[in-house]
């Protein structure tokens, strides 16, 4: 490992096989935390490559606990986080809209590490018990077509890495890898990343990992979601093809708005924002969710175009179906809590 650490510290990219070896080392219980921190910091300083991300994702996924789900077309819309722009939990809100439109959502997520409120933090503020068992997660996904997979529940090897990441307090390669390690077999993925210049590479990682169809987006100022604030950079993975394109809000019939209009806060504040969106209160918050859910519906293949996907996303909200998905997950969670307390 000293040779590989030395290469990274010198700014040299690792080959796929070398990163497989390094990833195994990262997850060993006897690897010193300070060495993990140094390695992750050096990787970030030189800039991670598609092969490094794919190799780490492969190893991390191999350590994940299996979730036994029925055969089906599942999608994850988890983003990488780490953009530092303090927006609300866009992808978590979008997950309910996608589920309300008929997409089977298995959303990976975690607590805040480099943000004000991670997906698990806002879910708990909404009354959703995130630390449910794997069989309960599978049952919820089968029953409601949506479930949230709390990373520590399915990635037991992540505990020590998580401690290191929290001590660093800034994005690492694990932000990039997180969305790629969902233990549910995914047919489709919609992922936002905070690096506009890495969108094509990230799409190639998804292709390497076997996604038949996927979309990667990076918004203005490096937002890890699609934004109303300007030009969004995207790549569509469609079997063997990687198709780059760009998009702004007006292209799909939405009004542009600055990033300041979608600022978030702590978990409780973001939960209130989400409840207002799903209740149909018109705002840039709602339009941002509609834009992202619309892209997700196109990626899933349920909409022929993103503009059509945006219309479907609006229908999911204004019909009440998205809110019903939230209520169903909250109810399921409360029933589990009552059994545990009883």
Task: Give structural notes.
By secondary structure, the chain is α/β, with parallel strands linked by helices. The chain has a domain at 74-155 and 185-328: Pyrimidine Nucleoside Phosphorylase, Chain A, domain 2 (3-Layer(aba) Sandwich), CATH 3.40.1030. 49% of the residues lie in helices and 11% in strands. It contains 15 helices and 7 strands. It has a 7-stranded mixed β-sheet, sandwiched between helices. Strand 6 and strand 7 (241-247) form a beta hairpin. The longest helix has 21 residues, at 321-341.
Largest sheet: 7 strands, mixed
Mean pLDDT: 92
Into which percent range does the helicity of residues fall?
40-55%
Strand order of the largest sheet: 3-2-1-4-5-6-7
Percentage beta strand: 5-15%
What separation lies between the terminal Cα atoms?
50 Å
Instruction: Tell me the number of helical segments per DSSP (H or I, 4 or more residues long).
Output: 15
In the CATH scheme, the class of the domain at 74-155 and 185-328 would be Alpha Beta
Return the string of H and E elements: HHHHEHEHHEHHHEHEEEHHHH
- The CATH topology label of the domain at 74-155 and 185-328 is Pyrimidine Nucleoside Phosphorylase, Chain A, domain 2
- Return Rg in Å: 19 Å
Task: Outline the secondary-structure elements.
Blueprint: H1 2-9, H2 16-26, H3 33-46, H4 50-63, E1 74-76, H5 90-100, E2 104-109, H6 119-125, H7 134-144, E3 146-150, H8 151-154, H9 158-168, H10 173-177, E4 188-192, H11 199-208, E5 213-218, E6 232-238, E7 241-247, H12 267-278, H13 284-300, H14 306-318, H15 321-341
Parallel strand pairs: 1-2, 1-4, 2-3, 4-5
Antiparallel strand pairs: 5-6, 6-7
Helix pairs in contact: 2-4, 3-9, 4-11, 5-13, 5-14, 5-15, 6-12, 13-14
């Amino acid at each position: 490992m000293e040779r590989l650490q030395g290469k990274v510290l010198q700014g040299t990219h690792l080959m796929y096989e070398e990163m497989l070896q390094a990833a195994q080392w990262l997850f060993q219980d006897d690897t010193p935390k300070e060495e993990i921190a140094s390695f992750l910091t050096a990787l970030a300083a030189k800039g991670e490559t598609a092969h490094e991300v794919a190799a780490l994702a492969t190893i991390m996924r191999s350590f994940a606990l299996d979730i036994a789900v029925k055969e089906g077309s599942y999608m994850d819309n988890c983003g990488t986080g780490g953009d530092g722009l303090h927006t609300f939990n866009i992808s978590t809100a979008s997950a309910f809209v996608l589920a309300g439109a008929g997409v089977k959502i298995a959303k990976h997520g975690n607590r805040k590490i480099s943000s004000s409120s991670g997906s698990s933090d806002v879910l708990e503020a909404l009354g959703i018990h995130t630390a449910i068992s794997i069989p309960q997660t599978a049952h919820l996904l089968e029953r409601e077509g949506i479930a949230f997979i709390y990373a520590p529940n399915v990635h037991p090897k992540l505990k020590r890495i998580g401690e290191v990441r929290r001590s660093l307090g800034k994005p690492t390669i694990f932000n990039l890898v997180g969305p790629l390690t969902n233990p549910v077999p995914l047919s489709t993925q919609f992922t936002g990343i905070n690096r506009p210049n890495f969108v094509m590479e990230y799409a190639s990682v998804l292709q390497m990992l076997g996604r038949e169809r996927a979309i990667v987006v990076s918004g203005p100022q490096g937002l890890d979601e699609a934004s109303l604030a300007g030009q969004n950079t995207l790549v569509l993975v469609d079997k063997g093809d990687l198709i780059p394109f760009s998009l702004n809000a007006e292209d799909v019939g939405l009004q542009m708005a600055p990033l300041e209009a979608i600022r978030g806060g702590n978990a409780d504040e973001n939960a209130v924002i989400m409840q207002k969106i799903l209740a149909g209160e018109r705002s840039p918050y709602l339009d941002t969710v509609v834009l992202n859910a619309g892209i997700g519906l196109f990626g899933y293949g349920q909409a022929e175009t993103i503009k059509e996907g945006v219309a479907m996303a609006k229908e999911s909200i204004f019909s009440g179906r998205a809110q019903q998905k939230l209520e169903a997950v909250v109810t399921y969670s409360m029933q589990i809590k009552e059994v545990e307390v009883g």
